[in-house]
Amino acid sequence: MAAASRGLARRMSLAALVILWGALGYAAAAEEDGVSSAMSDHKPSAATADGAPAEDQDREPGFRDSVTFEYIQIIGVAFIIVFGFIRPFLIEPYKIPSGSMENTLLSGDRVLVVKFLYGVKLPGTSRRLFSFRPPRRGDVFVFSPKHTQETHYIKRITAVGGDTISTDGQTLILNGERVENEPYTKHTRRIGDFPPFKHLVPYYWEAPGVREKMERFGKRTEVEAQLGPAGDPIAMDLDDRTFKLRIGNHDHERARGIPVKRYYFVMGESGRLHREGILYQNTNSSQWYFIEPIPRSRFRALNPDGAAFTVPDRHFFAMGDNRGNSEDSRAWGPVPFDVVKGKAVLVYWSTDPDVRFWNILRWLRLGRVGKRIRTQQGAASL
Q: Does 31 score more than 70 pLDDT?
């Protein structure tokens, strides 16, 4: 499938060249027409009905009347079509910023992501059109986690909705079966198995059928919120105390059908007591809620190392191939389909960020250019 996607990417590139070639051909034809029309412009001027001379036809043509301006317009339209339509909806390049996918992808790799394979996402909605297939286990995909929707991550799908995933040391267990012989994985530093999800955003708590799966990882409490002049919360009443709030960050909820407009990452202080978590309002009920991860000691009691977790429907459990050094679903939970951008298929350029560019032979990693990014789960690959 990745090879087919790469072939389609090539065809789209050829289509872009055809558009530009057609633009050049049309501009050349327009240039010929411009010569003949310029010759016709030198005919004697006609007279009006009352004998007054018509507007002078022999004036020097301006830039807007020139063939060069027409050429610029045609090429501009071609670039708008190619980079304004094809790139946002079909194929888009991304740069790898870190080593969480080593050695499949290296820092400095630039990859092509096929966005239409999982369906063309309509802006501002969760609806997708023309979907060829859903994301599969083993796909390397790009997405924006709910807790930082302006940042793009690239990981491998290790489980899909309905799967039960756990770990035994460095071995992944999927639906009760051990996933052996993963040649693409790397364990440089152990970060733990399935710790409490750090970012329990309201999406998980308000989405139907998902809330029950989150209660093992965090606690949600009804609170009374006090709002400031700008409409943001400045204090909350929790456990018979009033906590003054500092907002560390806030974001908008974009998922369709989720009754949340904005949520806040807050730090609360009441005397010597401190509470940290996420504060948001359910817009249907107007009730404010505060979510905080459960204490680690309690989490370990409820969830021993590597305990099984069932992935909700239309969600994906994402992990970096560098399992020992990757911030992924083990830290902030499963990835909803709504934030998936597309499937990575090809390394089209690669440079080493640790080498100065004037050392061209080491800086430019030509051996990685054109590398396929395989869909791979265990020893099997596509």
A: no
pLDDT, average across residues 262-270: 95
12, containing H or E segment: helix 2-40
Alpha-carbon gap, residue 143 to 168, rounded angstroms: 27
CATH class name, domain 92-192+308-381: mainly beta
Contacting residues for 249 by C-beta, under 8 A, at least 6 apart: 264, 265
Summarised one tens digit per residue, pLDDT across range 182-234 is 999 998 766 566 777 888 889 889 987 788 888 888 999 999 999 999 999 99
The residue type of 139 is D
Contact call for residues 2 and 371 (beta carbons, < 8 A): no
Cβ count within 10 A of residue 353: 12
Tell whether pTM > 0.85. no
pLDDT, position 7? 44
**Contact present, 255 and 338 (Cβ < 8 Å):** yes
Q: What is the dihedral of CA 226, 211, 151, 6, to 10 degrees?
A: -160
In terms of phi and psi (left: phi > 0; alpha: psi -120 to 50; beta: otherwise), the region of 81 is alpha
Task: Let me know: does 222 contact 289? Beta carbons within 8 Å.
Answer: yes
CA distance 56 to 68: 23
Task: List the domain boundaries for the chain.
Answer: 1-36+64-89, 92-192+308-381, 202-300
Nearest to 153 by CA among 88, 196, 100: 100
CA distances from 325 to 84, 99, 102 (A): 36, 8, 9
Query: How many angstroms separate the CA atoms of 209 and 213, rounded?
Result: 8
- Asked if 9 contacts 342 with a C-beta cutoff of 8 angstroms, the reply is no
Name the residue among 25, 195, 15 with its Cα closest to residue 87.
15
Handedness of CA 342, 344, 347, 351 (dihedral sign): positive
Residue 154 in this model has a pLDDT that exceeds 90: yes
